[in-house]
Write a structure and sequence with these properties.
Elements lengths: L12 H14 L12 H8 L3 H14 L2 E2 L7 E2 L4 H5 L18 E2 L12 H14 L14 H15 L8 E4 L2 H14 L4 E6 L3 H9 L3 E8 L2 E2 L8 E4 L13 H14 L2 E5 L23 E6 L11 E4 L2 H14 L6 H13 L1 H24 L6 E4 L6 E6 L5 H10 L2 E2 L1 E2 L17 E5 L5 H19 L3
Parallel strand pairs: 3-14, 5-6, 5-8, 8-9, 9-10
Antiparallel strand pairs: 1-2, 4-11, 6-7, 10-11, 12-13, 13-16, 15-16
Helix pairs in contact: 1-3, 2-3, 5-11, 6-11, 7-8, 7-10, 12-14, 13-14
Bound molecules: pyridoxal-5'-phosphate.
Length: 468
């Protein structure tokens, strides 16, 4: 294949190669379905490292320009007009969403922060302050206070079946920060790409790209991520409650994932962001327990307590602990404030955290039921999914409404909701295979605002039924 690519300048050659290839797709020099040279051949032609070409191919595959299949040549994808008109890398910075003034919020990913247990946190902080040795107020161990790491190891084993030890637990300022460190450690080890579910949270994918990794997609169906299609040496998954679709990784896929992870030495990060909230079935345990040497587990206090605490944790395979600590030291990252860590440890050890989980689960379950009842008469427009767990549900749009029309209606009614499209790795104008969707976070509003927020959602659905 003659690509007519200019020799690339030495700075950021991977990015430039991807740009040159994108331009070639857009101006038709590389037509849909045509084959690209192997990474080895193109690297030799251009005088680049093979890893540079592999990274560029990986990025373009993530953007949907390339179809990469094992054992076959890499081909140019059939690209829709929408993509050509608005290409842009997968990891475009995730802007604020929604982009309209919000009176009522049903934004997913957010708990009811008005229910933060102040009456429990305050005495815990008092106890901690009375007990904490002054030495613990010095410069801290970046991985987290040993008391919290011990409490978390016990809690995760007991509630989620995670197989770990305090030494393998890392405490960080939110999952996103920990993900950045995990990706940075992989990159440092020479890994160039990581797979994310398609759809998944765009800002998490951006974090991986900022750490130097190319992002490739793993499709998701009713049984969760298609783990047989993971095409990267590392993968971030949400097995218990796929974000944003809400499906659960099936037992067969869980087994297949752990088998593949071990056989192919794939580094898996299990993002268990709302694992405590399972309503209709027994909790599904962590996949991590099936392959603790390959799968890292991630949890957060953002849903049970409040995102503002910025408290999250990883339980890592033994061999990843040192490299992650090295990344923390190299980047100046540290664990969250020590008094907050110790207050959380106090809640975990006294049973107060479990009580908070049970209380919140009962409230959110009642809200989930209220949303289901409210949207039931609109089954010609939307079909709920991902309802068995978590703080949000996915309403698949089965009518001809577009996400643009939904956003316009939500704006008219001052309702904050999220839309599925922006979570996809590629933009698509094919409603058959990738139907539009609304993501409804029923946990977000305080109690007094829940009913009006739900009424606003119903007004949005009415607008979709009778477009203006
Ligand atoms: C998919 C997913 N992962 C992880 C998190 C937790 O992130 P953090 O700990 O940074 O609040 C969230 C929060 O919304 C999420 O939706």
């Amino acid at each position: 294949v003659d690509l007519h690519l200019d020799r690339l300048p030495p700075v950021r050659p991977g990015a430039n190669l991807a740009d040159a290839l994108r331009a070639a797709f857009r101006d038709g020099r590389l037509a849909a379905e045509s084959s690209l040279p192997s990474t080895r051949a193109l690297a030799a032609d251009l005088g680049l490292a093979r890893g540079t070409v592999t990274a560029a191919y990986g990025q373009l595959a993530a953007e949907g320009y390339l179809v990469v299949r094992q054992g076959a040549s890499t081909r140019v994808a059939v690209i829709t007009r929408t993509q050509l008109a608005a290409p842009g890398p997968v990891a475009r910075p995730a802007g604020p969403h929604p982009r309209w003034p919000v009176r009522w919020s049903l934004m997913p990913g957010q708990p009811d922060v008005s229910a933060f247990p102040r009456d429990v946190w305050l005495p815990a902080v008092r106890r901690v302050l009375a007990r904490v040795p002054s030495a613990d107020l010095g410069y801290p161990e970046p991985m987290g206070h040993p008391v919290l790491r011990r409490a978390l190891a016990g809690y995760l084993g007991r509630t989620r079946g995670v197989v770990t030890t305090p030494g393998q637990v890392v405490v960080g300022s939110g999952f996103t920060a920990l993900l950045g460190l995990w990706c940075g450690a992989l990159h440092h080890r020479g890994i160039t790409s990581v797979a994310f579910e398609d759809p998944s949270l765009p800002h998490l994918r951006s974090t991986a790209v900022s750490a130097g990794l190319a992002v490739v997609g793993v499709p998701v169906d009713d049984d969760g991520a298609r783990v047989d299609l993971i095409n990267a040496p590392a993968v971030v998954l949400t097995p218990a409650h796929q974000y944003p679709l809400g499906v659960t990784l099936s037992p067969a896929r869980r087994a297949e994932l752990s088998r593949q992870a071990v056989a192919g030495d794939v580094a898996v990060l299990e993002d268990d962001y709302d694992g405590e909230f399972r309503f209709d079935r027994a909790a599904v345990g962590a996949v991590q327990a099936l392959a603790p040497g390959q799968v890292g587990y991630a949890g957060t206090a953002s849903k049970v307590l409040a995102p503002g605490l910025r408290l999250a944790w990883l339980a890592l395979p033994e061999r990843q602990v040192g490299p992650l600590r090295d990344r923390m030291l190299a980047t100046g990252a540290s664990a969250p404030p020590v008094l907050d860590q110790l207050a959380l440890a106090d809640l975990l050890e006294s049973g107060a955290y479990d009580r908070q989980v049970r209380r919140a689960r009962a409230r959110y379950r009642a809200r989930r039921d209220a949303v289901l009842d409210a949207v039931a008469p609109y089954s010609d427009l939307v079909v709920p999914g991902g309802i068995a767990a978590g703080l949000h549900m996915h309403l698949r749009v089965v009518s001809s409404s577009t996400e643009a029309a939904i956003a316009a209606a939500a704006r008219r009614h001052g309702l904050g909701i999220d839309l599925l499209g922006r979570h996809r790795l590629l933009e698509s104008d094919d409603p058959e295979t990738r139907p539009p969707g609304l993501l409804v976070g029923y946990a977000a509003p305080p109690d007094h605002a829940f009913a009006p927020a739900l009424a606003a959602l119903i007004r949005v659905l009415n607008d979709l039924r009778c477009p203006r």
